[in-house]
Amino acid sequence: MGVDPAFHLQKAFPNLSQGIHLLRWDPQNRALTEQDLAYIRELGPGLLLNANPVSLTFSQPDPREPTRFYPCKYVKLDNFLPAEINQAILQHAIAHQDKFIPSRSYSPSNTEAESLKFRRSLRLDYAYFQEYGSLLREKIAAVAPTIFAELGIENFDIQIFEMEMIASYDGCYFAPHTDNSYPQTAFRQVSCVYYFHKEPKLYRGGELRIYDTQRQKPHPPILYGTYDEVIPTNNSIVFFSSSCLHEILPVFGPSQAFADSRFTINTWLGTKRLA
């Protein structure tokens, strides 16, 4: 791509990967300034092959990904684990309350204050529940081909099982998001949520709301008004596409006790971790 230096860049234009579209003519200035060049380099790292005051050379941009539509479809299985295993997982979570830490988002700053704009919950690392995580992984792997078929997802070889345990107490939530929007999470194809809690359930809310979603990377996903909701049920598991926008509605726990939380084990299935 060549740019006549008499065209000077406006300070707002589309991503360079789509080309430079907003330019202005300046017949009095026949060269790009150092400020212009610095601005171009900042907006298009890796795309600008050569730059000097009289010429620019850009690499060929990658083609856009096709637009894809992901319906708010899910599969829910009840009584997923033996009752004694379900209760053992609950007691294990309660016994490890001191190991739970505040959940974080994948935002650039990744601070607690930044994360609270999007979510509030407590997270337990897989290292603290490997035994039960392994049991859940085996059961998920056994039903995965059937689940993929019901979701309309082409069967794939599961190379990655990523897991975390979450406790959602009074006031917890998770704003609309997809599970694979960041480079660290791009490998995720199918999301699984295993629910466990005390019986009778001592909290309200916490429904999983899944939206019809349109996506064309690298643009943000588009949320449609159509959605479906999953009510948390003890010892059930839900499967859905990781590309669907979804949210966790606020949890209301009158006792505010950790043991009365909405507990989940979240699992993401993928084929390979992208660089």
Descriptive report:
This protein is of the alpha+beta class. It folds into two domains: 7-58, no CATH class; 68-270, q2cbj1_9rhob like domain (Jelly Rolls), CATH 2.60.120. It has four helices and 19 strands. It has a seven-stranded antiparallel beta sheet. Strands 5, 8, 11, 14, 15 and 17 form a six-stranded antiparallel beta sheet that branches. A two-stranded antiparallel ribbon has the order 1-2. Strand 14 and strand 15 form a beta hairpin. The two termini are 28 Å apart. 27% of the residues are buried.
**Can you tell me the CATH superfamily of the largest domain?**
q2cbj1_9rhob like domain
Write down the overall mean pLDDT. 84
Radius of gyration: 24 Å
* Through-space gap between termini: 28 Å
What overall geometry do the principal axes of the alpha carbons give? globular
Q: What is the CATH topology of the largest domain?
A: Jelly Rolls
Structural class, please? alpha+beta
Strand order of the largest sheet: 6-16-12-19-10-9-7
Largest sheet: 7 strands, antiparallel
- Which CATH first-tier class of the largest domain would you pick? Mainly Beta
Number of strands: 19
The share of residues in extended strands comes to 25-35%
- What percent of residues adopt helix (DSSP H or I)? 10-25%
How many H/I helical runs? 4
Helix/strand order: EEHEEEEHEHEEHEEEEEEEEEE
Low-confidence segments, given as residue ranges, are 1-25
Under the CATH scheme, which architecture of the largest domain would be assigned? Sandwich
Number of structurally distinct domains:
2
